[in-house]
Specification:
The structure is a homodimer.
Chain A: H1 6-17, E1 39-43, E2 46-49, E3 54-57, H2 72-84, H3 93-105, E4 111-115, H4 118-133, E5 137-141, E6 167-170, H5 175-185, E7 189-195, H6 210-223, E8 226-230, E9 253-256, E10 267-271, H7 276-281, H8 292-307, H9 310-332, E11 336-339, E12 346-349, H10 356-367, E13 370-371, H11 386-405
Parallel strand pairs in A: 3-13, 5-6, 5-7, 7-8, 8-9
Antiparallel strand pairs in A: 1-2, 2-3, 4-10, 9-10, 11-12
Helix pairs in contact in A: 2-8, 3-8, 5-6, 9-11, 10-11
C-alpha cells in the first residue's frame, strides 16, 4: 500500500472543513488526475507543489503572475511599503501614483478607481454605465466570463432570474448579433461589456475582429452607451495601452485585475471624462480597497513591464512555445489548434470533444515537470526564458508521443 | 499665503485622476474639515498622516486593524509565507489551517470558504441561502449595511429595481416587523440576513435583543430558511465564537472580513452542514481568493487574539475610554450618548441633528492627536494601552471645553 502524499493528506483535511474540498476556479477536481491541489512555493516561472515537485508553470496563477514569483523590483516595493503601512484610515500616496500611472499608460483613461477582485471591477463598470445613462440594459457576449457574483457567474445555482433581467447577449465578433441585441435594448441601452478577446473556457480563442470592435464603438457612440472592455484576464500581457488599442478602438470604461500587481490582490476601473461625474457619485467600496502594499506592487509591476517591454518578451516566448508544439504535433500527425495571442495560449486537440486527448497530453507534461491546462487559456510571464520554453518542449514532445501511441 | 501641505498637494493630484478625489468610505470629504485624506504609516494604535502628524487612532482602518499595525506575530507569519509564495496555482496549507481554525473557534461552523471583501462574503451567504432552498426572498434590516454592490449598496445610483426584487425589510430588534416580513416572504423565504448588532451610520448602536435573536432562529427553523449573521464589522472584537454566541443563538451561515487578518485583504463565509452541499455546488471565486499570505496573517491574528483574550482587552480599554468621556461630558453639562459594545463605540451628542457638535468635538480631538469619528462606530485594538486611552481623554476633555464654550 502506497503512503499518502502530502497533497493527499491535505485534500483529506480540506474535505472536512471546505465544501467539496475546494472552491472556485482553483479546484483541482476540475483538472485531470495527477494535478496537485496544494502548493508550497513559487520562484520566477517555477512552482513547487506540497509533494516537492517542481514545475515550469504556464498558468501563472491563472493570470496574476506576470513578472514571475518573487520579482526583486516588486518585492522591494512591497517590503518598503509594508514597513510604512498598508491598510490605514485612508490611502497612501501610492493610490495617486498608480492612478496617474494608469492615466498616462492608457489612451482611453482620464481617471482610475481601485478594488480587489476582477468581479468588483466589472460590476463597478456596469453600475457606472447605468448611473451615467439612467438606463438599464447591458449587452454581454454569450458564454463570456465576467466574474462570479449572481449577475455574471457561469453557474446559475443560487441566482434569481431578476439578477439578469437587464442582460442581453450577442455572439463575440458577430456584428449582426450585436446589432440585433442593440435593437432589442432600444432606448434602455446602458452599455456593451466585452472581453479583450474571446477566451471562453474549453473553446478556441478568437482575437477581436476590427470590423466588430469598430462597430461596437459606433453603436455605443450612436446610442450614448458605455463601451466597457473587460481587460481583467488579458490586461498588460499584449500591450500596456489596453487590449483594444491593438485594434484601434478606445473603450469608455475598462476593468482590470489579475496581472496588475504581479499577484497582489488588486483590481481597477479606468474611465474617460464622460463617466467621471457618475464615478464620483456611485458608492462602491471595500475594507481593503485603499491598501497601499498592493498599489506599491502595481506601480513596480507596471514600471518593470514598461522598462523591459514585457508584452514583447512574453509574445516571443509564447511564440517559441507555439512553434515548437506545432512542429511536434505535425511530426506525430496529431491535429491540434493553438489559439489566442501567444502570451495567452490555448491548446486544444482535434476530434477531442471529451478532452480525453488534451487531458492525457497535459497529464504527461505534468509528470515531466510542466504545468499546462487542458481547456483554459494559459499565461506566459516575463520570467519564462528560452531555456524554460525548451525544457517545456521536451516534456510536450514526450507527451505527444504518449498521445500518438494511444 | 500659507504653503500647501503634503495632504493638500496629494488631494490636488488625486482630484485630477480619481473621480471626486477619492472613492468609498475612506473619502475624507465625508469627515469634518481638518481630517487628513492621505496617510504615511501606522504603528501599533498610532497613525501618521502625510503631513507628519501622529494620532492615537480609534478607527483602526474602519475595523481591520485589531492587533495594531505591525504586530510582530502577524509580521513574522506574513514574511515567512511571502518568502515561500502567496498567489500560486492553488492554495497552500494555510487555507486548510485557517478553515480548521475557524471550525474549531466557531460553534456554528462545520466548514469555511474564503474571499477578499466583506461584500463577497455577504453575497456568497445570500447565494447559498437561495441555492440550498430553491427560494428567493432575503430579509434584511432597514438601513443595515451589508456591502457595496447593486443588491446592497446604500446608494441606489446605478442600481436597478430588479437588483432588490427579492429583498424584504424589517426593523432591527423589532419582532413584530420581522414576523410581518416573514409572512410577506411566504413560502419563498430563503434567508434572514442580520448584522451582529445594529451599527447603522449616524445612529445610536443597539445590541441584539435576545428575544429578537431567538425569534430569528425560531422563524428560520420553522421555515427552513438560512439564518445569516453578518459579522463582517463586529467579528472577533466582542468574542472569538461569533457575535451571536453572546446571546445564545447560532447562525447557519456567517460572513466575516475586516479584523480577520489584521489588515490583510481576506473575507470568509462559515456555515453548518445543512449548507455544505450547496456550498460545494455554487460557483464563487476570485483571482486572489486562495492567496496564502492573507491566510497566514489570519491564523497568526486569531492565535494572538485567543492567546491574550483580545476581546476582553479591547473591552477593558473601550470601557476606560467610555467612562472617561461620560465623566467629562457630565462635568461640562453636555449630553452625549455612547452606544454599542465598548470595543466598537459610537459617540453622539444630544440635540445635534446636523452633527455640528460632534463635528466640532472630533475636530478638536483631531487637533490634539486623537482620531475619532463623529458619526460612525469606532474600533479599539489590542494595541491600545491605558496610557493611550488617557492621552485620548486629555484631548477629549479639551474638546468638550471647546464645545461647551460655543
Amino acid at each position: 500500500m502506497q503512503a499518502e502524499t502530502p497533497d493527499q493528506k491535505l485534500r483529506a483535511r480540506a474535505a472536512r472543513v471546505i465544501p467539496g474540498g475546494m472552491f472556485g476556479h482553483l479546484n483541482a477536481n476540475r483538472l485531470p488526475e495527477g494535478y496537485p491541489q496544494f502548493f508550497e512555493r513559487g520562484d520566477g516561472c517555477h512552482l513547487w507543489d506540497v509533494n516537492g515537485r517542481r514545475y515550469v508553470d504556464f498558468m501563472c496563477s491563472w493570470g496574476p503572475i506576470v513578472l514571475g514569483h518573487h520579482h526583486p523590483a516588486v518585492t522591494e516595493a512591497v517590503q518598503r511599503q509594508m514597513a510604512a503601512g498598508d491598510c490605514l484610515n485612508g490611502p497612501s500616496e501610492r493610490l495617486v501614483e498608480l492612478a496617474e500611472r494608469l492615466v498616462r499608460l492608457l489612451p482611453h483613461a482620464d481617471w482610475a478607481m481601485f478594488s480587489k477582485n476582477g468581479t468588483d471591477a466589472t460590476t463597478t463598470c456596469v453600475t457606472l454605465a447605468r448611473a451615467a445613462s439612467g438606463r438599464r440594459k447591458i449587452l454581454v457576449a454569450q458564454g463570456a466570463y465576467h466574474g462570479a457574483i449572481p449577475w455574471c457567474t457561469p453557474n446559475p445555482l443560487g441566482v434569481t432570474a431578476e439578477d439578469r433581467t437587464h442582460l442581453l447577449t450577442f455572439t463575440y465578433n458577430d456584428v449582426a448579433s450585436l446589432e440585433t441585441a442593440v435593437q432589442r435594448a432600444g432606448d434602455d441601452l446602458a452599455g456593451i461589456l466585452v472581453s479583450a478577446f474571446r477566451h471562453d473556457y474549453g473553446f478556441d480563442q478568437e482575437l477581436p475582429d476590427p470590423l466588430f470592435t469598430r462597430r461596437v464603438r459606433e453603436l455605443c457612440d450612436a446610442t450614448n452607451a458605455a463601451l466597457i472592455v473587460d481587460d481583467v484576464r488579458a490586461g498588460f500581457r499584449m500591450t500596456l495601452r489596453g487590449s483594444w488599442d491593438l485594434v484601434g478602438v478606445q473603450p469608455d470604461l475598462s476593468a482590470w485585475s489579475k496581472a496588475i500587481a504581479n499577484g497582489h490582490a488588486l483590481a481597477a476601473v479606468t474611465g474617460n471624462d464622460r463617466y467621471r461625474d457618475a464615478a464620483s457619485k456611485i458608492f462602491v467600496t471595500g475594507s481593503f480597497w485603499c491598501s497601499a502594499v498592493s498599489m506599491a506592487a502595481a506601480v513596480a509591476t507596471l514600471d518593470e513591464l514598461e522598462r523591459n517591454d514585457g508584452p514583447a518578451r512574453m509574445r516571443a516566448m509564447g511564440q517559441r512555445l507555439r512553434d515548437g508544439i506545432a512542429a511536434q504535433a505535425a511530426a506525430v500527425g496529431i491535429g491540434v489548434r493553438q489559439s489566442g495571442p501567444p502570451q495567452m495560449p490555448t491548446l486544444l486537440f482535434d476530434d477531442d470533444a471529451d478532452f480525453a486527448k488534451g487531458d492525457l497530453f497535459t497529464r504527461e507534461a505534468l509528470k515531466r515537470g510542466v504545468y499546462l491546462h487542458p481547456r483554459h487559456n494559459m499565461f506566459l510571464s516575463t520570467a519564462h526564458t528560452e531555456a524554460d520554453i525548451d525544457f517545456a518542449l521536451e516534456a510536450t514532445k514526450a507527451a505527444f508521443d504518449v498521445v500518438a501511441a494511444r
